[in-house]
Design brief:
Chain lengths: ~300, ~300, ~325
């Protein structure tokens, strides 16, 4: 009886294919209209940001006091601003700034927030409760309000805007990660690792972290879209990226003082809108894709 | 019952403590010397020292925090360094503007967003759904300041329907007041309406697939009745909760909107305070905002538990 | 006289109540048991009996609140977590749910190898890969399965990987916590056979936790019956199924469906539900549902006494059973 059972068991019952999981997610993302349109939009913006110096004949800092306040025309597709600079060039350069700030702040908050959530969720007890209360307290501050306050403390600059925006999103990532850890802690394979004698670090890095990546990634797209919006708002108020570095929010602010020249505020604002929209679309698509896989 | 109250306090007290601590620390860290702001740059060293003592700036941080906290709890938030006016009075004046903006904006958002969400859920996966969904995503992507400016350019400068900015209180001139509040309300409502629409749609979809809806249909009720009477009532619960929790986002939008339209509200108070280095004002505005959010969240939470006793 | 491999002495485990201000739940109460090397002891009970908790407490997934747990002479129950890690090889566990017992992001080979890495066993990387292949062969899976991910395996195969993972560190004691309960019946048979043959081949000591009496009957040398966190009967498998001494065991066995008319027992239907574990009955835990309950049963929980050599029962009314069994034997 015992010998046959060993042979019996050798019949492979599983499916033989070996799809790479990442490819599956990517195809899922780009099969919905949100994913496609978001991807295209984001691609355009990224392209514009990366190649901005080469896409227009003008340098974005070049003053041309003769051509100030020109409306959109053949020479300047988006018109010129109060110092004669080509607005299209400045919008493209602003794309660089926005994407950089968004990426940097998301990375900042993701790393720090996830670390906090990971440790808090794993250790548990009073430590976790206290940390989570602190996170809840931070969440009570509206994003802009907190970013404003932090920038006011640190002084307005691009780097400080990154830090400020990053700090405001830390509690979201921390909460997310901690929620994941709480669920994963109870799963059998984590218990098995404990029974095997794995130390905390090994369990966190090998078992918990890789399996909590999904929701964190989805949230990153939301965080990025909020980062762009917050940076634009800070710059609009004069507390973000400082001139002469072009920023979309800052350009709209100057445009507001000259609103008869509508193109000065219209195009930068449009850029913000499209950028945030692209992240929203992508975020939706990613979430739908990951939800479908769980089914 | 007592256990519930105890549990409730257990939750809220640490939260409020941390919140007030953060608010205090943030303003404490602001660069600039409150004493200088008070007596001016020309003051002598003696006057400066006196101001410092008076403002309690020489005490260690925990002492300052507790002094501030005890004062705040009694309603004393200090005086504006610019105008000398008690911060609490400034707050009370300005809160009404922001509250009105928030309320009007919410009303507008609900009127716009909820029906759109219902429609979207009803015609799920059809072109109506796609269009509405796209509009919602767009609505959430539009920067408040850009939208505000566009509205001003269109309705004010272009069509001359309303004045571009400014504020007049309702008691002074009701008609003008409403005309001046029209554009700011629309500005703040758009993004919120988009969120409401998405939430309503999601909530309706979840409810519509439930068994009791199928029972209602089987009973022979018209589709319209099924949707509106049975589905909506239950779907609205999470929608209302989300609505309550959105106050934070609304207030963030309010800051920008008040700046664009020159409304004398809480948001403008904070921004002005930052530019003028008026620390008590900043602190007061910060605190008011945050306490407002916390209280609304708690109220929403309590309401939700009341309506849905299973969750506990 | 050999020393028991596993010795539980008056082990108790409480859990705080889930609700605010509720009473704590005593999941395991005053459990004492010995398992000899090479023995298979089946631990049976219904849900809520505490059987899984015992398994988790033995492996120190939970810490015991009182009592001692000794494995291979080591005071496993009393050690601090830090020191414990070195000794963890000595007892391993096979888990119930194949869909959550393996890390979905790890390949099968790495899953099995992990224990080796933790304890520095098996030599260099090459030697470890060799060991993994040996283990795969032992559980009856082809060597190339090492590269697969868990979602590419069936439920039965995943359970087998779980067995290999446990065996990799060469434990003295193996705890199978409902190891086959989540599998289809035909696959159950395969995995049980595998466990049985491995046990014989490697002379493993096993604690087999299950609610399925027929499976337990097949694989166990001895059986321990749990009710509401307390042991009510312990006896050799062959004897307990023929002649249960505790009323609860009797009822439990009567519920096993069988087509054999001769061995089919009269169904004993128990009244009522399992009592709330946070509010256990005073006196014998089974008193609220026992068909033979008497006044004396409600005063105190009867201790587990050795009523016959090697047979333990926690019932005050032993005399009933002695009568019955005498009658049965005469019949």
């Amino acid at each position: 009886m015992s010998e046959t059972s060993l042979q019996f068991a050798a019949v492979p019952e599983a499916r033989d294919k070996e799809p790479s999981p990442i490819w599956g997610v990517l195809t899922a993302i780009f099969s919905s209209w949100q994913g496609i349109s978001g991807g295209i939009l984001f691609g355009l913006i990224l392209f514009g940001a990366v190649f901005s110096p080469w896409l227009t004949p003008y340098d974005y800092t070049a003053l041309d006091l003769i051509s100030i306040m020109q409306g959109p025309n053949g020479a300047h597709f988006f018109g010129t601003d109060e110092l004669g600079r080509d607005i299209l060039s400045r919008v493209l350069e602003g794309a660089r700034v926005s994407l950089y700030v968004a990426a940097a702040s998301v990375v900042f908050s993701l790393v720090i927030g996830s670390a906090i959530g990971l440790v808090a969720g794993w250790i548990g007890g009073v430590f976790e409760k206290t940390v989570m209360r602190l996170m809840d307290a931070m969440l009570a501050f509206p994003l802009i309000v907190m970013a404003l306050a932090i920038v006011a403390v640190l002084g307005p600059s691009m780097e400080n805007a990154i830090i400020a925006i990053g700090i405001t999103k830390i509690p979201h990532f921390a909460r997310l990660m901690r929620g994941e850890v709480l669920v994963l802690k109870e799963l059998d394979y984590v218990r098995a690792a404990r029974v095997l004698g794995a130390g905390n670090t090994r369990i966190l890095l090998r078992h918990i972290l890789p399996n909590s990546v999904g929701p964190v990634l989805v949230y990153s797209s939301i965080a990025a879209s909020q980062a762009i919006m917050t940076e634009a708002s800070l710059s609009f108020l004069g507390l973000g990226v400082q001139p002469p570095t072009p920023s979309w929010g800052g350009m709209v602010s100057i445009g507001m003082q000259n609103f008869q020249f509508w193109w000065m505020s219209f195009y930068p604002g449009l850029a913000i809108f499209l950028a945030v929209l692209s992240f929203n679309l992508l975020g939706d698509a990613v979430r739908d894709a990951l939800d479908a896989r769980l089914q | 019952m007592l256990g519930r109250v105890r549990g409730f306090l257990f939750q809220i007290v640490p939260l409020l403590f941390f919140v007030s601590l953060i608010a205090f620390i943030l303003t404490d860290l602001l660069p600039g010397d409150a004493a200088i702001e008070k007596v001016g740059l020309e003051a002598t060293q003696q006057q400066l020292e006196a101001a410092r003592e008076e403002l309690g700036l020489n005490d260690p941080m925990p002492v300052r925090y507790f002094t501030w906290l005890t004062n705040a709890l009694q309603g004393d938030l200090g005086k504006s360094l610019r105008s000398g006016e008690p911060v609490t009075e400034v707050l009370l004046r300005r809160i009404s503007v922001t509250v009105e903006l928030a309320v009007l904006g919410t009303a507008f958002a609900v009127l716009l967003g909820v029906p759109a969400g219902i429609l979207s859920a009803r015609f799920r996966a059809g072109w109506i759904d796609a269009v509405i969904n796209f509009l919602a995503l767009s609505g959430m992507a539009i920067p408040y300041f850009w939208l505000g400016l566009l509205l001003i350019m269109l309705f004010s400068l272009g069509l001359h329907w309303v004045p571009p900015s400014g504020y007049v209180s309702f008691t002074e001139d009701p008609l003008q007041h409403l005309r001046l509040m029209a554009l700011p309300t629309m500005t703040i409502a758009v993004a919120f309406a988009a969120t409401m629409m998405r939430q309503t749609r999601a909530s309706m979809l979840e409810v519509m697939t439930a068994d009791y809806i199928r029972t209602a249909r089987a009973k022979g009720l018209s589709e319209r009745k099924v949707v509106l009477k049975h589905g909506l009532r239950n779907a609205l619960v999470p929608v209302i909760t989300v609505m309550g929790l959105q106050l934070g986002t609304l207030l963030g939008g309010a800051i920008i909107t008040e700046t664009v339209f020159a409304l004398p509200g809480l948001g403008r108070m904070m921004v002005d305070g930052i530019f003028r280095r008026d620390f008590p004002i900043i602190q007061g505005a910060l605190l008011a905002t945050v306490i407002g959010v916390v209280l609304t969240n708690l109220a929403t939470d309590a309401l939700y538990r009341f309506v849905n006793p299973r969750i506990n | 006289m050999t020393e028991p491999l596993l010795r539980l002495s008056n082990v108790t485990k409480w859990f705080p109540s889930r609700q605010q201000g509720g009473k704590p739940v005593q999941a395991v109460s005053d459990v004492s048991l010995e398992v000899m090397p090479g023995e298979v002891v089946g631990l049976v009970g219904e849900s809520g009996s505490g059987k899984s908790t015992i398994g988790q407490t033995i492996t120190r997934l939970h810490d015991p609140d009182s009592g001692e747990i000794s494995i291979a002479g080591i005071d496993f129950g009393g050690m601090y977590q830090r020191e414990l890690r070195k000794h963890r090889r000595v007892v391993q566990m096979i888990f119930q749910d194949p869909s959550s017992s393996l890390n979905p992001r790890m390949r099968v080979g790495d899953i099995i190898e992990e224990g080796l890495g933790i304890h520095g066993l098996g030599g260099d990387a090459k030697a470890r890969k060799q060991r993994v292949n040996e283990l795969l062969e032992l559980i009856g899976l082809p060597a190339d399965f090492a590269r697969r991910f868990p979602h590419q395996l069936s439920g039965g195969q995943r359970q087998r990987v779980g067995i290999a993972r446990a065996l990799a560190v060469e434990p003295s004691l193996l705890i199978a916590d409902e190891a086959v309960s989540a599998l289809d019946v035909s696959i159950q048979a395969q995995v049980i056979s595998l466990l049985e043959s491995l046990q014989k081949k490697l002379n493993l000591t096993m604690l087999f936790i299950s609610h399925d009496m027929s499976v337990v009957e097949y694989i166990s040398d001895r059986v321990a019956v749990l009710y509401l966190g307390r042991l009510v009967e312990v006896a050799k498998a062959s004897e307990i199924f023929r002649r249960p001494l505790h009323p609860y065991t009797e009822a439990l066995l009567s519920a096993i469906p069988t087509t054999n008319v001769k061995t089919r027992r009269k169904r004993i239907l128990l009244e009522g539900d399992i009592p709330n574990p946070s509010d256990p009955p005073k006196g014998c835990v089974f008193s609220t549902r026992c068909p033979h309950v008497a006044e004396q049963c409600k005063s105190a929980m009867p201790p587990l006494v050795e009523v016959e050599p090697g047979r333990f029962s926690a019932c005050m009314r032993q005399e009933l059973f002695e009568e019955k069994s005498k009658k049965a034997e005469e019949a």
